Amino acid sequence: MASAMGSLHLDLKDCGNCPIRHRAVCSRCEADELEVLEDIKYYRSYEAGQPILWSGDHMEFVASVVTGIATLSQTMEDGRTQMVGLLLPSDFIGRPGRDIAQFDVVAVSDVTLCCFRRRPFEDLMTRTPHIGQRLLEMTLDELDSAREWMTVLGRKTAREKIASLLLIVARRDASLRQKLPGDGMSFDLPLTREAMSDYLGLTLETVSRQMSALKKAGIIVLEGKRRVVIPDLEGLVAETGDDMDGGVIA
Amino acid sequence: MASAMGSLHLDLKDCGNCPIRHRAVCSRCEADELEVLEDIKYYRSYEAGQPILWSGDHMEFVASVVTGIATLSQTMEDGRTQMVGLLLPSDFIGRPGRDIAQFDVVAVSDVTLCCFRRRPFEDLMTRTPHIGQRLLEMTLDELDSAREWMTVLGRKTAREKIASLLLIVARRDASLRQKLPGDGMSFDLPLTREAMSDYLGLTLETVSRQMSALKKAGIIVLEGKRRVVIPDLEGLVAETGDDMDGGVIA
DNA sequence: GAGGCCATTTGATCCTGGTCAAAGTCGCGC
DNA sequence: GCGCGACTTTGACCAGGATCAAATGGCCTC
User: Fold this and answer.
1) CATH of the domain at B214
2) Smallest Cα–Cα separation from A59: which of A112, A121, A6?
3) For the segment A51-76, what is each residue's pLDDT rounded down to a tens digit?
């Protein structure tokens, strides 16, 4: 269904050098467990814009995002779509025990996945508890963020939604480069206006208008097409509606 | 923080007779594992309307809902609230590895919980994989439904939202009494208009108006205050916006 | 540099659902 | 029975965001 490009230059074969070694589903594994994983893993690459999975597809593999960004979304028959998750490096795709995909997965940027055939992975999970434990932890975290996002979708105004999204991306970006978010920080916004609208339950026109409004209010500064500067982080937080917003995310 | 009533008449002490034995977090446990659980478990009861947990509370226990219904919700500083989950018998409250509650939990009807002190439960989980496996499975299911609900919140109209909620409650009710949902079925709607509005991201006035509209259109029939009759299930499904809606839920 | 493609911005207007307000219904205790 | 409180319904009006439409700007190819 999805076309694999299958190029991998680095010595990713060695899990010890893997960039997501400490955060992915395998992060708890010991050396011997990693060896087993190395035997059954393989890599796949997708170009920006390519579909990775369609809802209803048979899933022959589960995978970790190694590099790049993908979206998880649901589309209604009449075309309305809602993004239900943003998949970043170390996030997990698929679920043991289910072989039919429930949502669409699309590569937003170029994406590399570390894949495991589903059956061997499931077998492995019953034998090495570290994988299941880590997957449980990751799933609980995702459930918490999904629930927090429900409040954004159900109760926030357009402006608050935009501010919330910007803050999430800003914090994630800071955590990736191991810095604390602060005044003057900047980051790339990897999403088109349409993708943002799908995430926020808005139209792309409303997203554009609110971005302009936040720019005019001095809450954000846009550098070129993709780069966002936050001169005053507290100001942005205030725009999200929930103040004091739960502190920094790991 | 929450007041426990601590009354339990039935011989719930015996896990073998527990009404949620086959669906709860303990459903995979063998007899010997159940014995360990029985040693550390205790029951708590809450009356309709009572809070079970506040966001920010220290959680000294995790628990399974044995009987009754509770809501999981988030409240913004200015009072806007969003329900992020409905907790039904067999659903799990709390999470291993976290000691601060993230959401408010409130008993909607009288509720009985089967509680485990968190520490012993966590220890037990590392020793008996069956519990962790089942919890993972349940959490993955909840994540899927949370994501489906995001589409309801983000993209559906008020009328579609109401229809979606009614359909969910109808299906759950049918599955509880081990019947297939069908034309002419009826069920109790355990939620006030306000609770419905919190679930759907609407105001209670809009909920009331749309309920009236569905009644006028003959999609639903109201018997008394709480009872809903569905004369034509297909008609209700059509009102949800997603037709063919994924079949029956266990 | 011209042209075309795409994402984005901006404008004008409409409509769904929110807000504010008042009346209706039910159940309950006195 | 009466009155009270909680919940619900209904109405009038308003506004936030959607819709439809057009203009702008960047980037790529030729």
Assistant:
1) 1.10.10.10
2) A121
3) 999 999 999 999 999 998 999 999 99
